[in-house]
Design brief:
This is Glyoxal reductase. Keywords: NADP, Oxidoreductase. Belongs to the aldo/keto reductase family. GO terms for molecular function: oxidoreductase activity, acting on the CH-OH group of donors, NAD or NADP as acceptor. The protein is α/β, with parallel strands linked by helices. The chain has a single domain, classed as TIM Barrel. It is built from ten helices and ten strands. The strands form two sheets. An eight-stranded parallel β-sheet has the order 3-4-5-6-7-8-9-10. α3 links the parallel β5 and β6. α1 packs parallel to α2, α2 packs across α3 and α3 packs across α4. The protein is globular, with a radius of gyration of 18 Å. The N and C termini lie far apart (about 35 Å). The model has no long low-confidence stretch (mean pLDDT about 95).
Length: about 280
């Protein structure tokens, strides 16, 4: 279990991935984004998660470059993730999309590249492209996003290399227990996007009660719940104080009773699209 913000989990293939990162979904490219990413890195974050469709890879790249210089960090100390969008699925299209993301980010490689959504009939060719990038040493780790069990079963039938990560919507109202169990059996690291349900859980009564008992915020309780379940988590924020708060997870521990109470909140309720009905 993570004991420090810079602690990492070891993925299939031996690459280490930070347990906590900064997500930049819906953060507009520009000064605010650059400031948020630089603040996160200055306060100890080492993982930044973006995607082609977020249209902010250039800003992330600028922030990473400035943060490395300002904090005297080597590129190898950071873990940068991006994702291929639905419109670019297919073998050659995915290879081209990867090069486009690298160019925008100003990087020579990505630490993790994901298929963003399991668009039916297209993701297997993209997976072949990710395998080719991985085997050529162009990317350190490869994985998928928003894949359900049947998508994973499908891709595992033909894959030469198993997905190393599956990044999915995951929070106390969508705990994804069956998917988590399947992923654990196959050595796939689960990573949570929207871990705070885009702010919709911050007034949830059970969570506020547990937070009060620990002298912590609801956000900290949820993120600690992720970590104690072995889930990588990437909360989003552009506010420096919230970025700091979201990383202050290592001076307390949830009891088994706390964990069970949070587990019991599951409603299988999504705030994002259903992966079985999302092709765009």
């Amino acid at each position: 279990m993570a004991q420090h913000l810079q602690d990492r989990t070891i993925l299939q293939g031996g690459v280490s991935m930070p347990w906590v990162g900064l997500g930049v979904f819906q953060v507009e490219d520009g000064d605010g984004l650059v400031h948020a990413v630089k603040s996160a890195i200055a306060h100890g974050y080492r993982s930044i998660d973006t995607a082609a469709v977020y249209a902010n890879e250039r800003g992330v790249g600028q922030a990473v470059k400035e943060a490395m210089a300002g904090n005297k960090l080597a590129r190898e100390e950071l873990f940068i993730t991006s994702k291929v969008w639905n419109a670019d699925l297919g073998y050659e299209e995915t290879l081209a999309a990867y090069e486009a993301s690298l160019e925008k980010l100003g990087l020579e490689y990505l630490d993790l590249y994901l298929i963003h959504w399991p668009v039916n009939g297209k993701y297997k060719e993209s997976w072949r492209a990710l395998e080719a990038l991985y085997k050529a040493g162009r990317v350190k780790a490869i994985g998928v996003s928003n894949f359900q069990i049947h998508h994973l079963e499908d891709i595992l039938q033909d894959a030469e290399i198993k997905p190393m990560v599956n990044q999915v919507e995951l929070h106390p109202y969508l705990s994804q227990q069956p998917l988590r169990s399947f992923a654990k059996t196959h050595g796939i690291q689960i990573e949570a996007w929207a871990p705070l349900m885009q702010g919709k859980l911050l007034d949830q009564p059970v969570l506020t009660e547990i937070a009060a008992s620990h002298g912590k915020s609801v956000a900290q309780i949820i993120l600690r719940w992720d970590l104690q379940h072995g889930i990588v988590t990437i909360p989003k924020s552009t506010k420096e104080q919230r970025i700091i708060e979201n990383a202050s997870l290592f001076d307390f521990e949830l009891s088994s009773a706390d964990m069970e109470r949070i587990d019991s909140l599951n409603r299988d309720q999504r705030t994002g699209p259903d992966p079985d009905n999302f092709d765009f």
